[in-house]
């Protein structure tokens, strides 16, 4: 699916686009489509392609807001100018005031889902609905996205969006998380990611309701042994900083996701812990590997063996939390921290981060760890350090100004 052709080329679609297309036709929730479903997929793509080509008059592969409005009007939509501005803001990944073809597909899919939901609630067919807070908190929830990302310059926020289950992760959510963080790691325009949860909780671990399903469990066993891990990205070794904004519960697999992050900003009332202990579910997403490195073996075993909850202040004393902030402020504080980190010279920052990670997890000896530091530090001297020293002598970099 990733290599579907369009515009006569074999340009890959964004993984988020592929996921959205599959979700339209994957009636059995298997993560794929059969031949008949693929025929339906192809028809939709052809229709989208034809309408996109019609309004991409300069053949640039992009359409602007006015062209998007004309294209969607061709599909029968009558939307406000502000709504089109919102669509451009949401789907303009390159921040050019335009959308590419695969972003246009995402836009069409979201609109179709919103339309389906609207029709379901418009029982008297008068073109108006009254939506409660629970139904309308976030249009992207209605659209079925269990993971929502938002770019803010060189920082991206990745949010688990299953508030009804305290952001417990199922297979679909795990796949989405993995794709989002892999996309972040490979995007040269992004420096830092912030991982959080919608609705007041970070993540309550893996969805035990899905684990109780025999068919889903067979798929889970494959993910455990061959895949990146049940929680999605938790076995990754990212090349750029990740910050966890922790509110509510960050327990079991949710704790393991928090451990994936370089730094954890934790709200005062947040609860962390190995709550899966009581259900006989092991830590298989890096918990037994990362936790002892972060807080020491003795403290790690205290949490792992007892499954007890740990509050924000104790987590701060342990080194499990890096910052403790008032309730409701974790995401804001994490974004401020991310923007500060993003303002530093990035090659130097990533080289030092990589050396620290290698020394902690991979280095077989002190000597090899030191050599790794030298090998990765010397190139930075030529690329950034000399420039930085020149800036310093001219007064830049003092008082917190680095770029």
UniProtKB/TrEMBL annotation:
Any Pfam family matching the protein: ECH_1
InterPro entries: ClpP/crotonase-like_dom_sf, EF-hand-dom_pair, EF_Hand_1_Ca_BS, EF_hand_dom, Enoyl-CoA_hyd/isom_CS, Enoyl-CoA_hydra/iso
Gene Ontology molecular function, alphabetical: calcium ion binding; catalytic activity
UniProt entry keywords in alphabetical sequence: Calcium, Metal-binding
Domain EF-hand positions: 43-78
Signal peptide residues on this chain, from the entry's feature table: none
Segments crossing the lipid bilayer: none
Keyword Transmembrane helix: no
Family that this chain belongs to: Belongs to the enoyl-CoA hydratase/isomerase family.
Name of the featured protein: EF-hand domain-containing protein
